[in-house]
């Protein structure tokens, strides 16, 4: 029966009743217990079993053990002379049924044949199963053992019931198949062996008697057709050699669809794969789960990070595969001894992601078809998330490109905010006041970013450029609009923007900086965003000659960063005040280099006008004089405007025009210009303020 058809399965078949060999041995348990109780009545009280269901009275166990040789002779005599015991012995001597046809895998008959169990071992296993199937035999076991504190079967009880007690000594050995396969739970110490409860796990009983999946075990899902890299080699590695569990490491990101790949590899090996939940391992035990899988003839996909589980399973003699998700790199802890070489699962590329989107959203028009392509390139979601995304969007009444992009962005679950600072874009490209040539370069950069999908996947540049994105350098003096332009670019392209916080990324510990950068780029590759490396020269500074260990490790960090920049799939904007400090090798890896110069007088006048909000009354300000007289950058001009508004709001003399919120005076603005020049350590004599010097003196 297929494990993937649980919901539509017919009512469960009672395989316990259908197994004739199991029924024979369960009857053997019943008959031998009844015969032993008859002997206990005679031994302890000299009376026959009254047959009314009353158990024989307990006796001194030490006295009983001291006369075991004499009692054994009397016991055989009793079995031959007592009418009830003789009748039970005749029934016990019945021959077992002949095996007809192939036994059902996992059933009692199959176990006996597969493990080549002798009669004594079959009886011990049946005794353990009988207690699981009928708890009422617990008091019978305690009475037979003359110990009311042990209402369960044990090897000591099996030896007492079996007509050849010495044969049970082989079953007690730790290498017996009943223990090595996990059919019976092992005693913790060898001293407990004979008195340890003979009990199979509930999962073992479930496998023997049912075809259903127990709670906590899930089918790996329908096997979707997918190409398998190096298929002949992978098939050879999946072959089971020997009788030990075979760990199969599956190396992929944490959110990859390990279950789907395990099902595909199981198909190559001709086996079904079952997913094991952490709760099942916790409540049932790893050994019981492995034994269930062996009985059912399936392989297992274990939860990630459950090293103790496969270590416990490794102690069993069970030929099955244990698929192990490995998400944190191939290390000795993640990959056990005896495992196959790691299976590095391929990450879905653009074509695979697009196909999954198209299959999940088949009813889309022409405009949405282009949006699907854009999302397939921009959001490198793993297969599992894409399937979940399309299932959710399939229920939308009206699907738009904007809704699709928003859903993909939410599903990407970006992890960038831990190591970066998210920036909400405040500006548009029309808000920039820059030279005409710089405006054209920004437009070219914007068009290039919009054309990545078509050029990479329709024109065929993806392979040559490794599906690379765009990296641009914005360099120029402070306050010339580099960060503002990056925000405007992100807003125009509909990208989320993250600023790299150097305090969180750069570490004094060797190798930690590379790890932090790797986390940033990995997360950014998946969620489609714009990365802003502010003050980039602090990270990408000119590489130094190696004079000590610090220089050597600094160069390693820079080299790693340059290599990741080349492979980055999104848009990276690097803002720097000192272009000359940047490494030449780094500059060769940039697609764009945009210079942001200080604004000229005309641009400064426009910045002055835009620096004050529309609700502010600026009728009394001479913007042309301010722009011509003070060569400030846009950032400094905005700072002056803001500080002027603050002073004007605190001045009761400022009476704005009707409908306006406030009115800064020319004197207040000039005073803030003076403060800004002092902050920049520039000269600010009265001659610079021209005819407005008197206003400045009054304001001061």
From TrEMBL:
Keyword list, A-Z: ATP-binding, Nucleotide-binding
Source superkingdom: Bacteria
GO molecular function, one term: ATP hydrolysis activity
InterPro entries reported for this sequence: 26S_Proteasome_ATPase, AAA+_ATPase, ATPase_AAA_core, P-loop_NTPase
SMART domains per UniProt: AAA
Any Pfam family: AAA
Domain AAA+ ATPase: 468-596
PANTHER family membership: 26S PROTEASOME REGULATORY SUBUNIT
UniProt similarity note: Belongs to the AAA ATPase family.
Protein name: ATP-binding protein
Organism of origin: Sedimenticola thiotaurini
């Amino acid at each position: 029966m297929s494990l993937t058809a649980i919901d539509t399965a017919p009512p469960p078949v009672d395989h316990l009743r259908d197994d004739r060999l199991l029924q024979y041995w369960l009857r053997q348990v019943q008959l031998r217990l009844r015969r032993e109780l008859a002997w206990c009545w005679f031994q302890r009280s000299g009376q026959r079993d009254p047959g009314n269901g009353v158990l024989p009275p307990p006796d001194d166990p030490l006295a009983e053990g001291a006369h075991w040789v004499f009692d054994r002779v009397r016991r055989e005599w009793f079995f031959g002379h007592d009418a009830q015991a003789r009748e039970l012995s005749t029934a016990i001597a019945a021959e077992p049924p002949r095996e007809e046809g192939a036994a059902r895998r996992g059933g009692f008959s199959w176990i006996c044949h597969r493990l080549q169990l002798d009669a004594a071992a079959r009886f011990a296993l049946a005794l353990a199963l009988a207690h699981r199937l009928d708890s009422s035999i617990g008091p019978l076991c305690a009475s037979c053992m003359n110990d009311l504190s042990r209402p369960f079967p044990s090897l000591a009880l099996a030896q007492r019931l079996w007509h050849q007690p010495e044969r049970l000594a082989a079953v007690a050995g730790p290498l017996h198949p009943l223990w090595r396969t996990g059919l019976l739970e092992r005693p913790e110490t060898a001293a407990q062996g004979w008195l340890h409860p003979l009990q199979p796990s509930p999962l073992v009983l479930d496998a023997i008697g049912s075809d259903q999946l127990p709670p906590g075990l899930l089918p790996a899902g329908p096997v979707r057709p997918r190409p398998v890299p190096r298929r002949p080699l992978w098939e050879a590695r999946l072959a089971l050699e020997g009788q030990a569990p075979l760990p199969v490491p599956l190396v992929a990101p944490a959110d990859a669809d390990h279950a789907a790949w395990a099902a595909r590899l199981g198909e190559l090996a001709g086996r079904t794969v079952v997913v094991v939940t952490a709760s099942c391992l916790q409540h049932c035990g790893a050994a019981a789960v492995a034994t269930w899988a062996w009985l059912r003839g399936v392989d297992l996909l274990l939860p990630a990070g459950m090293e103790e589980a496969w270590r416990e399973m490794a102690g069993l003699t069970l030929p099955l595969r244990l698929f192990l998700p490995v998400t944190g790199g191939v290390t000795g802890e993640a990959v056990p001894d005896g495992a196959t070489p790691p299976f590095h699962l391929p990450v879905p590329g653009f074509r695979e992601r697009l196909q999954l989107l198209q299959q999940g959203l088949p009813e889309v028009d022409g405009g949405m078809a282009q949006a699907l392509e854009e999302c397939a390139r921009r959001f490198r979601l793993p297969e599992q998330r894409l399937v979940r995304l399309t299932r959710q969007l399939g229920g939308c009444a009206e699907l738009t490109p904007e809704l699709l992009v928003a859903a993909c962005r939410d599903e990407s679950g970006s992890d960038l905010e831990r190591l970066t600072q998210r920036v909400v874009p405040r500006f548009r490209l029309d808000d920039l006041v820059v030279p005409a040539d710089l405006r054209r370069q920004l437009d070219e950069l914007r068009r290039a970013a919009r054309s990545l999908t078509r050029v990479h996947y329709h024109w065929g540049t993806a392979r040559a450029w490794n599906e690379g994105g765009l990296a641009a350098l914005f360099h120029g003096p402070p306050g010339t609009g580099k960060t503002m332009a990056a925000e405007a670019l992100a807003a125009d392209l509909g990208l989320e923007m993250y600023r790299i916080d150097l305090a969180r990324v750069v570490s004094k510990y060797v190798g930690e900086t590379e790890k932090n950068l790797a986390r940033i780029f990995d997360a950014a590759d998946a969620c489609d965003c714009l990365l802003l490396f502010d003050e980039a020269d602090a990270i990408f500074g000119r590489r130094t000659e190696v004079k000590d260990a610090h220089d050597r490790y600094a160069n390693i960090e820079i080299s790693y960063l340059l290599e990741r920049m080349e492979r980055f799939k999104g848009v990276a904007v690097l803002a720097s005040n000192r272009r000359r400090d940047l490494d030449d090798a780094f500059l060769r890896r940039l697609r764009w280099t945009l210079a942001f110069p200080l604004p000229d007088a005309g641009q400064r006048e426009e910045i002055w006008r835009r620096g004050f909000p529309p609700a502010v009354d600026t009728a009394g300000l001479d913007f042309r004089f301010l722009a011509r007289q003070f060569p400030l950058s846009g950032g400094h001009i905005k700072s002056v405007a803001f500080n002027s508004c603050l002073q004007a709001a605190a001045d009761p003399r400022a009476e704005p025009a009707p409908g306006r919120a406030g009115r800064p005076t020319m004197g207040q603005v000039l005073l803030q210009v003076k403060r800004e020049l002092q902050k920049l350590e520039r000269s600010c004599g009265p001659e610079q303020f021209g005819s407005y010097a008197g206003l400045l003196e009054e304001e001061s």
